Amino acid sequence: MNIKGKVIYIAGAGGKIGFSVTKNVLAHGGKVILGEIKTKKLTTIINKFEKKNLIIVRGDHRKKKIIDKSITLGIKKFKKIDGAVDCMYSNKKWKKFENINLDHLKKSLLPHIGSTIIFSQRLIKFFKKQGYGNLILNSSVYGHKIPQFGIYKNSDLFNPIDYSASKAAIQYIVKYLAKLYLKKKIKVNCVSPGGIYEKKFSKNFLKNYKKNTGSKGMLDANDINGTILFLLSDESKFITGQNIVVDDGFSI
């Protein structure tokens, strides 16, 4: 899959998935606008890849001002932006269904759904002016699948209803925008990963999760790279409005 020379704006470039995607895009000859609040983790990327192929914009990329700044700086350096990938994740404290109140929902749903809409709005405004564009959002298998509650048995983990609701909303946003801009040469898709491995997960939880997959179980962040690279490449030029699931069979 060839993305050599393509300029990609990655919001949340320092996160688990965003960091992996960023390295992969650069390794395949792409140029990157790295958006991140905490840029310390990006030092390894700066040291490994040529600075002429990247630009770092520090700030909260859920905010209109920072998104527009990133677009402006990207155009100044690279003269174009071929695509954008939203890898942002608001890691708030989730609550169980019985303990949720309106104030909590404002803090959990707004950063997810609201920021996705604003990020999409600002990028699509630019893509319309440019004459083309490629937007990739990140959802989850829990955006279209009811949780298998049994895998959380005897653990402190649970699947928050507002998390699933926000991920389902992202899949709808993708179809809405893809249809709205179908004639504008703007592609909009999303990727829905299965669970991404974290050291905090107990052996019992990992075992229960793996029973519902084909072979691997929990994914590593780099297992998503191939799908995102494909969606960024010209090989996927006629794919829009789709939710691509990468979960080792967890959701079937």
CATH class: Alpha Beta
Helix content: 25-40%
Termini, distance in Å? Answer: 27 Å
> What's the rounded overall pLDDT mean?
93
Integer tally of domains: 1
> Which overall shape is indicated by the principal axes computed on the Cα atoms?
globular
For this entry, give a set of tags:
252 residues; alpha/beta; Rossmann fold; seven-stranded parallel beta sheet; 39% helix; 15% strand
Task: Describe what you observe in this structure.
With 252 residues, the protein is of the alpha/beta class. It has a single domain, classed as Rossmann fold (3-Layer(aba) Sandwich), CATH 3.40.50.720. It has 7 helices and 7 strands, in the order βαβαβαβαβαβααβ. The chain has helices at 16-27, 43-48, 64-78, 102-130, 161-180, 203-210, 225-232; strands at residues 7-11, 31-36, 54-58, 83-86, 133-138, 186-193, 243-246.
Write the layout of secondary structure elements.
Blueprint: E1 7-11, H1 16-27, E2 31-36, H2 43-48, E3 54-58, H3 64-78, E4 83-86, H4 102-130, E5 133-138, H5 161-180, E6 186-193, H6 203-210, H7 225-232, E7 243-246
Short description:
The chain is of the alpha/beta class.
